[in-house]
Write a structure and sequence with these properties.
By secondary structure, this protein is mostly beta strands. Helices cover 4% and strands 45% of the residues. Strand 56 and strand 57 form a beta hairpin. The longest helix is centred in the first third of the chain and has 20 residues. The termini are far apart.
Length: 722
C-alpha cells in the first residue's frame, strides 16, 4: 500500500523545514567568520568556503561529508574539508568549479565537535557566483599599473648636481638605470632596495645599491618587477608582472617560495606581507560586470566593468584562511569625485597597501576612496574609517592638517603607535606630494598631524610612492611616478634635513623604495672586516682573508671594486671558488698621506644580466694618528670606562661608548707593549658596548687595553691577580 502524506502534512513539513532553515540561518551569528558572506554575490567560480566558529576543532570529527555544497545549476559538489594550522579555521575546497551566475547552498547539520566536546551548531546559507566570463581577457585586470594611464610619464632633472653615480661602475649593462646620487650625508650604512621599471617598455631591474649608487646586487628582467624588499623573516620578496606572483629569495638569492592569491583571483602587485606565524597577506583586483542603473539613479543600464578589492590571508600551506571583499563592505559610490560613472572601467577602491596593526587587525589603503580602513582580522567587519578631505567616509577629526590626504599610498603603523603614509595629493587644491605621520586617538577618533615632509618647491607624485621609518628615526621616501622631477628616493631627518637623494632616468620609476641591512650568504669573507694599524706613510702591509663559497656550484669572481686607491687586491680576476671551497685573497694597504682610511671592497660575481657582490669593510690608519685625541666634543660622546672588576681573575668586563658607526679596535697589551689579545677589530654601529676579556692563559700582572674608534683613542690599565 502506497503511503500518501495528507495535505495538512505537506503544510506541516513545509513549516518544519522553514523553521529548521530559519534556525540554521540564525546560528550564523555564532560563527566568527564565514566566507563567502551569506547571501553575497559576485564570487568567482573557483571559490572555497571558509568557516571559523572561533574554538579549536577536533580534527577526528572533520569529514567532508559533514558539509553539503550544492550549486543551483552544477548540482552537488564534493571536495576536501581541511583544518588550517590555527586549529580553528575549516576550509571546504570543491573538486570542481561552480557555474557562472548560479546560486550555491552550503549546509551543515551536525557531527563536527570542538576539542572540548561541544558540537558545532548547524548552519545553512547561500551565495551567488558571478556572471563574469572566466575566459574573457580583461585588458586592465588585476596586477596592472592602472594609475599611470592617461598621465604624463616624463620628468626633468632640474638643477641637481651629480655627486655620485652608478656611471662610476663601468661593468654594468648598457640599459642599467643610472642611479644618480645628488646628496649623500646619510649615516645609515644599510642598503637601498629598489625595482626600477621602464614605463615605455617591459624592462625591469631588481637592485640593491650602496650610498654611492654602486649596486651590490642586480638582476635584469624582461618584465616589470615591483616591491623589492626584505620581509621580517629575512627573505627577499618581489612581484613579477610577467608571472603575476610574488617570489621569495634567501640570502643566496635562490628562490625558495612563491605567493599568489587563491580562490581563482589574480595576484595584485601592491602588497605582500609575510606574518610572524608564517602566514601571508595579499590583495587582488576583481573586475566584475555591473549595471550602474542598479547603483545610481540614471546610471548606465549596460554592463560595464567595476573593479573591487580582495584581501586574503594565506596560511603556511597556501590555503586561504581569511578573505575580505570590498563588495561586502564598501559601496561603489564611495569613490572620489575624480572617478566618473560614465566611464566603461571604474576602479572604485584601488587598494595599494595592507598593514598588520599592533592589535592583530588590518589597515588597508584605498587610493580611489582617499581612505584608510581598519578591518577586524577575525570577523572582517570594519572597525573605523579614516578619510581624507575628499573622502565619502571619515570617522575622524583632523588636527593640525587642514588639507588631510588624497590618493595616498603605503599605510604603516609605527612602533610608537603613530601611522605614516605617502600623501600623493592628487585632489589637493594645489597638487603636491608629501610624507605624513599622524598620531591617532582611536577611542575619540582624532587624527593629529605631528610630522610631514614635502619639498620646496613642491614635488608632485601622482601615482605610487611610499614611506619607511628607519631605526635612527630618519624617513625614506620613495616618490613613485613623479611629474617634472627626477628625484626617486629621499632620506630625511626628523627636522626636515635631507641627508640622501637619488634620481632615476626619465622613463624609469620604482613603485616603492627601502633601506635594509643586508648581507649575502652565497659567498662570504672571513673575516668580514679588516683593519691595518700604525702603517707609516709610504709603507705598506698585507692582510690575507678567506673567500668562502657556501654553494654546491663553483662561483666565478669577475672583478673587485673600491674607491680608495690606498687599498689594492693582490689577486688576478677572473677566478673560480670551487663548490664549498675557499680561496685566499691578499689585501694591501699603502697610505700615501697621513690619516684614517675607511673603504668598502666589492667582491663581484657578474653575468650579462646579474650581479652578486660581497662587501669587505676596510679600515686603516697611519702611525701618526695613534696619539690620544683631546677634542672636547669627541670626549663627550666617546668613552672608554675602567674595567670591572679590577683587579680580576680570570675575566673582566670592559665598557665603552661610540656615537656613530666607526671601525673599532679594542686590544690588550702587556707591560712591554706586546699585543696579547684582540677583543674587537670590526666596524660597529653607535651604541654602548660590554666586552668580556678572559685572561685564563695569561700570567698575573698589569696589562693595558686600548680603544681606537675613528679619531678617538683611549688607554686604561687593568690588573690580573691569580
Amino acid at each position: 500500500m502506497k503511503f500518501t502524506l495528507p495535505k495538512y502534512g505537506v503544510v506541516l513539513a513545509v513549516l518544519i523545514a522553514t523553521s529548521l532553515n530559519f534556525a540554521q540561518n540564525n546560528n550564523l551569528v555564532d560563527y566568527q567568520f564565514i566566507s563567502p558572506v551569506p547571501n553575497s554575490a559576485l564570487h568567482l567560480q573557483g571559490t572555497s568556503i571558509i568557516i571559523r566558529e572561533g574554538r579549536q576543532i577536533d580534527l577526528r570529527t572533520l569529514f567532508s561529508s559533514k558539509i553539503t555544497v550544492v550549486g543551483s545549476v552544477s548540482g552537488d559538489h564534493f571536495g576536501k574539508l581541511i583544518l588550517s594550522d590555527d586549529g580553528k579555521t575549516m576550509i571546504f575546497k570543491p573538486y570542481e568549479k561552480f557555474y557562472p551566475a548560479e546560486t550555491v547552498n552550503v549546509n551543515y547539520v551536525q557531527g563536527i565537535f570542538t576539542v572540548n566536546g561541544d558540537e558545532l551548531l548547524p548552519f545553512n546559507f547561500n551565495f551567488r557566483i558571478s556572471e563574469r566570463d572566466p575566459d574573457k581577457e580583461y585588458i586592465r585586470s588585476a596586477g596592472e599599473l592602472l594609475e599611470y594611464e592617461g598621465n604624463p610619464v616624463t620628468h626633468s632633472s632640474g638643477e641637481m648636481v651629480d655627486l655620485y653615480s652608478s656611471k662610476l661602475d663601468d661593468n654594468l649593462p648598457d640599459d642599467f638605470p643610472t642611479l644618480t646620487i645628488n646628496i649623500s650625508n646619510s649615516t645609515e650604512n644599510n642598503y637601498l632596495f629598489l625595482s626600477p621599471f621602464d614605463i615605455t617598455g617591459t624592462l625591469g631591474y631588481l637592485i640593491i645599491s650602496d650610498n654611492y649608487g654602486i649596486p651590490i646586487y642586480y638582476r635584469r628582467t624582461n618584465s616589470h618587477q615591483h616591491g623589492f624588499r626584505v620581509q621580517p623573516n629575512g627573505l627577499l620578496t618581489y612581484f613579477d608582472a610577467g608571472t603575476r606572483r610574488f617570489y621569495a629569495m634567501d640570502s643566496s638569492y635562490v628562490v625558495v617560495d612563491t605567493f599568489k592569491t587563491g580562490n581563482g583571483y589574480t595576484t595584485d602587485i601592491h602588497e605582500l606581507l609575510i606574518l610572524p606565524n608564517g602566514n601571508s597577506l595579499l590583495m587582488s583586483y576583481d573586475p566584475q560586470p555591473v549595471r550602474l542603473d542598479t547603483v545610481i539613479a540614471g546610471g548606465n543600464p549596460d554592463l560595464i566593468t567595476v573593479v573591487g578589492l580582495i584581501i586574503q590571508e594565506l596560511d603556511i600551506n597556501k590555503d586561504v584562511v581569511f578573505q575580505w571583499r570590498s563588495w561586502d563592505h564598501f559601496q561603489i559610490t564611495d569613490v572620489t569625485e575624480d572617478i566618473h560613472f560614465d566611464w566603461q572601467w571604474i576602479d572604485y577602491v584601488h587598494g595599494n597597501a595592507i598593514e598588520l596593526d599592533y592589535d592583530g587587525n588590518l589597515l588597508i589603503s584605498s587610493r580611489n576612496m582617499d581612505e584608510i580602513t581598519k578591518i577586524n582580522r577575525q570577523t572582517g567587519e570594519i572597525i573605523w574609517r579614516l578619510g581624507g578631505k575628499k573622502a565619502r567616509n571619515n570617522d575622524f577629526t583632523f588636527i593640525n592638517d587642514p588639507i588631510t590626504f588624497s590618493h595616498q599610498h603605503d599605510i604603516r603603523r609605527m612602533p610608537n603607535g603613530n601611522i605614516t603614509l605617502f600623501d600623493n595629493g592628487n585632489l589637493h587644491s594645489s597638487q603636491f606630494s608629501r610624507a605624513v605621520e599622524y598620531q591617532l586617538d582611536e577611542e575619540n577618533h582624532i587624527a593629529n598631524l605631528i610630522w610631514n615632509f614635502n619639498y620646496e618647491p613642491d614635488v608632485y607624485s601622482w601615482a605610487m610612492g611610499n614611506t619607511q621609518r628607519l631605526s635612527n628615526h630618519n624617513t625614506i621616501i620613495g616618490w613613485g611616478i613623479r611629474s617634472e622631477d627626477s628625484r626617486a628616493i629621499t632620506e630625511v631627518k626628523a627636522d626636515g634635513t635631507v641627508v640622501f637623494e637619488l634620481a632615476l632616468p626619465d622613463t624609469m620609476f620604482s613603485y616603492r623604495a627601502y633601506r635594509f641591512p643586508w648581507k649575502t650568504n652565497l659567498f662570504v669573507t672571513d673575516p668580514d672586516s679588516i683593519f691595518f694599524e700604525s702603517i707609516p706613510v709610504g709603507g705598506s702591509s698585507l692582510i690575507t682573508i678567506s673567500l668562502i663559497n657556501n654553494a654546491a656550484d663553483s662561483i666565478n669572481i669577475t672583478s673587485f671594486y673600491n674607491k680608495d686607491s690606498s687599498y689594492t687586491v693582490e689577486k688576478t680576476v677572473p677566478f673560480n671558488i670551487p663548490p664549498f671551497g675557499t680561496v685566499p685573497i691578499d689585501i694591501k694597504f699603502e697610505p700615501f698621506e697621513d690619516g684614517y682610511f675607511r673603504d668598502f671592497l666589492h667582491i663581484r660575481s657578474d653575468t650579462e644580466t646579474s650581479r652578486v657582490a660581497q662587501i669587505l669593510v676596510l679600515g686603516g690608519r697611519t702611525d701618526s694618528t695613534i696619539s690620544n685625541i683631546h677634542d672636547e666634543n669627541i670626549q663627550l660622546i666617546y668613552r672608554l670606562e675602567q674595567n670591572y672588576p679590577n683587579p680580576f681573575n680570570p675575566s673582566t668586563i670592559i665598557r665603552f661608548q661610540i656615537s656613530k658607526r666607526e671601525f673599532v679596535t679594542l686590544k690588550v697589551y702587556d707591560i712591554l707593549g706586546r699585543e696579547v689579545a684582540t677583543l674587537i677589530n670590526a666596524e660597529k654601529p653607535a651604541g654602548n658596548y660590554n666586552v668580556e676579556f678572559n685572561a685564563n692563559n695569561l700570567a698575573s700582572g698589569v696589562y693595558v687595553y686600548r680603544l681606537q674608534a675613528g679619531k678617538f683613542s683611549d688607554v686604561k690599565k687593568l690588573l690580573l691577580l691569580k
